[in-house]
Design a protein that fits this description.
Chain lengths: ~500, ~260
């Protein structure tokens, strides 16, 4: 890639005295080089300039370096500090003053022995102990409830340590990582075509998003571009996944208010979508279709039949939505519950429907459009209230929007259903980011390729970033609101724990 | 509220009559993989599978371990003359060995008579089978499929299966995931407080054999390394009908007499 002096200049939204040097990067990626100890200062200047923290990790390509990624003005700003083989890696802490980076930094300390300067030790994160109570609140009749990792109902393993006097929740600790399976290390040594199957199984309910983000990272590293028809199919599969996930959240909200007819209705819709996905791809979770370079096969339905199925779905959905929003026993419980202020959401770098419910318009499909979203006109749905109702409303609107986008993509496919996959070059060394808007929020995957195989991989999952916010979701709420608030987050521990 | 009820009534009946009648998967459904041609295989075939489900013996005989299969289709794409997806939901078996196909096999379809007698067994328990679930490191999709068993399409309450919050009331424990370190203690404790007779179902390929997460060093590589498994339901994830089939098999292990 040739770089002119002009490209080396900092974008004008970045402060002049950033103390960082711009390096050549890919298209919408701004790579900046700093010294490890300058990490703190530079990241805080970025924050002051409006950047949103995404992730922090150790990379090995092209050289060992500490890397932090931020989103700013439609660019991916990447801060890189070569570590020159230092062990442990000593750098200026980002998390000390920026809540968004705290868990990422803690993970780096625990799993890679990094030493951030100026960092305050947090509670243990990656090796949780189900029996450890560690209550902090003192007072008359305050007790600690370890809720999880085995909970009533069919839920993934996660623990919440609730400290309560019975009603108010003065303190809550979210404890993820009960399910850490080491998925990032599972990619190592696999060729991309095989590694995509691992990507699909990091967070099973967002298989399509993970496969897409991984494939796009690989495509950028290899310098290939998926064909337009493949991108259209990817968008169709991704939107079906979003609809399924959002319907799941809505059904669970109905369950928590004991609106069982409503729950049944939305479960029916979700199963309809799941069956449609099985007919379209052979898998109820859309697995096996997306591959680096494109898609393995086109949808296995006639396009007209697919549109007819979407029409039926939309008709049913609209009626149920009207009923849901007209059921006061339902929405009364959601209005005002688990209110998250815009400032809190921004400080924690939250993403997805959760952030959009608090008026923060973050959506990877819109911020840094990828694949077919460069052509599809997407309307980003936001609400201002920041409560459970706002998060549910965002999901309702997004289902309608997803149906609209799918029709657009299918229309284009009707006109021209061309090539579906390009082969990857046999040789490649490189590294790149890939991203996708998963139903839970923005997902970013960093991939390093050596000899055409995955050498290293890092996942910045939306669930982990959003869960850090759950500790703050009970400002004025009582213990009985727990289930409403948890479901309104709509996250998956599998994605957070990896 | 009345409107909800009317809406529900207008929809009519959606529930499957499984196991009385089979439920057909859609065309192109990628169910368990089947061996089409097992003789004279090249030893290289074993390397195709990302989870080591394929083995070739010294005589070139091919075997396929469905307990390890994650339905990725790598083998079907590489050697379509030897491997094919079956259009079938059921995957459950009572032993790990029963999941290993050696040599060529016919369509391993669940016999209609078996399906029906399993249904009768469940009825004999007089609608009182209590199920508890524990996640020990799944990818999250297994939970969705287990949850759907209680949705109106599958509605397994009609067969007498109930979800219970307390393991002390449970007859059947469904375990998902390959058992991570922090989940080992909670898993053992959950199982130990369940009253006998009880049955354990390993749901999903991760729980059956570790699947993709078996070799990361952070899991036990499957539930049977820790507790005795009664029914294996492989799949990535196993669809609701496969789970239901597994539940019916597990009921048979609770020592219930089928009334004549």
């Amino acid at each position: 890639m040739t770089t002119t002096d002009d490209q080396r200049k900092l974008p004008d939204y970045l402060p002049e005295h950033l103390g960082a040097k711009r390096e050549p990067g890919y298209g919408d990626e701004v790579r900046l080089r700093v010294a490890p100890l300058a990490f703190e200062r530079t990241s805080h200047m970025l924050r002051a300039a409006g950047a949103r923290f995404i992730t922090l990790f150790l990379a090995e390509t092209p050289e060992p370096a500490l890397v932090a990624a931020f989103a700013q003005r439609g660019d991916l700003v990447v801060l890189r500090a070569p570590t020159q083989g230092a062990d442990p890696v000593v750098y200026g802490s980002i998390g000390a003053g920026w809540p968004a980076a705290r868990w990422a930094e803690q993970e780096l300390v625990e799993l890679h022995g990094a030493r951030p300067v100026g960092y305050e030790e947090e509670r243990r994160l990656t090796t949780p102990d189900a029996d450890e109570l560690g209550g902090n609140v003192r007072g008359l009749d305050v007790f600690s409830i370890p809720f999880g990792p085995v909970r009533s109902g069919i839920f993934e393993a996660i623990q919440f340590l609730i400290e309560t006097g019975g009603e108010d929740v003065p303190r809550l600790q979210t404890r993820p990582f009960f399910k850490r399976r080491g998925m990032e290390s599972r990619f190592v040594g696999l060729d991309p075509e095989r590694a995509v199957h691992v990507a699909e199984r990091v967070a099973g309910i967002a298989s399509v998003a993970y496969a897409t983000a991984f494939s796009q990272a690989v495509e950028r590293a290899f310098g290939v571009q998926a064909p337009a028809s493949a991108e259209r199919w990817r968008a169709v599969h991704a939107e079906l996944e979003r609809v399924a996930c959002h319907l799941d959240v809505i059904a669970k909200q109905a369950e928590t208010t004991a609106l069982f007819v409503g729950q049944a209705r939305f479960q029916i819709l979700k199963e309809d979508v799941t069956r449609l996905r099985a007919a379209l791809t052979g898998s109820r979770f859309g697995r096996g279709v997306i591959v680096p370079g494109g898609v393995r096969y086109a949808g296995r339905m006639e396009l007209d039949a697919l549109v007819a199925a979407l029409d039926r779905l939309e008709r049913d959905f609209e009626r149920d939505r009207q009923l849901f929003l007209g059921t006061s026993s339902m929405i009364d419980r959601l209005i005002g519950s688990g209110r998250l202020s815009r400032e809190l959401v921004e400080d924690h770098g939250a993403v997805g429907p959760l952030a959009r419910g608090s008026g923060v318009s973050v959506d990877a499909r819109h911020e840094r459009p990828y694949g077919d979203y460069r052509r599809l006109g997407l309307r980003v749905v936001t609400e201002r209230e920041g409560d459970a109702m706002a998060r549910v409303s965002v999901r309702f609107e997004e289902i309608a929007e997803s149906l609209r986008i799918m029709r657009q993509a299918i229309d284009q496919l009707k006109r021209r259903n061309g090539e579906l996959c390009v082969p990857l070059p046999a040789r490649c060394d490189g590294s790149a980011f890939g991203w996708a808007e998963a139903p839970q929020g923005e997902l970013l995957i960093w991939v390093e390729i050596r000899d055409a195989r995955v050498h290293r991989l890092h996942i910045a999952s939306p669930s982990l970033r959003n869960w850090a916010l759950f500790d703050h979701a009970f400002p004025k709420d009582v213990l009985t609101d727990f289930a409403f608030i948890e479901h309104s987050f709509g996250l998956t521990p599998a994605g957070a724990d990896r | 509220m009345l409107e909800w009820i009317l809406r529900g009534l207008r929809k009519g009946r959606t529930t499957t009559s499984y196991p009385r009648r089979a439920l057909e998967p859609p065309d192109g459904y990628q169910g368990p993989v089947r061996l089409l041609h097992a003789a004279d295989a090249s030893p290289d075939l074993a390397a195709i599978c990302p989870t080591g489900a394929i083995a070739v013996d010294s005589g070139g005989g091919l075997s396929l371990d469905r307990g390890r299969c994650i339905h990725c289709g790598a083998c079907v794409r590489a050697a379509p003359e030897r491997f094919a997806f079956t259009r079938q939901y059921e995957t459950a078996a009572r032993s790990r060995e029963a999941l290993i196909q050696i040599g060529q096999t016919g369509e391993a379809d669940r016999e209609e008579s078996t399906r029906r007698s399993l249904g009768q067994q469940a009825r004999a328990l007089r609608r009182s089978i209590h199920v508890r679930h524990i996640d020990t490191g799944s990818d999250g999709s297994e939970e969705w499929e287990i949850q759907s068993l209680w949705n109106p399409y599958y509605d397994i309450q009609r067969l007498g299966f109930f979800l219970t919050s307390s393991p002390r009331h449970a007859d059947i424990l469904i375990v998902t995931g390959a058992v991570t370190g922090p989940m080992r203690g909670p898993l053992e404790r959950t199982w130990n407080v369940m009253p006998a007779p009880k049955a354990l179902i390993a749901a999903g390929t991760e729980a059956c054999s570790g699947g993709l997460t078996g070799l990361t060093g952070l899991t036990a590589g499957g539930v049977d390394g820790i507790l005795p498994v009664d029914v294996y339901v492989p799949g990535s994830p196993p669809p609701p009908i496969a789970l239901l089939d597994g539940l019916l098999l597990a009921v048979g292990l609770l020592g219930v007499q089928v009334p004549r």
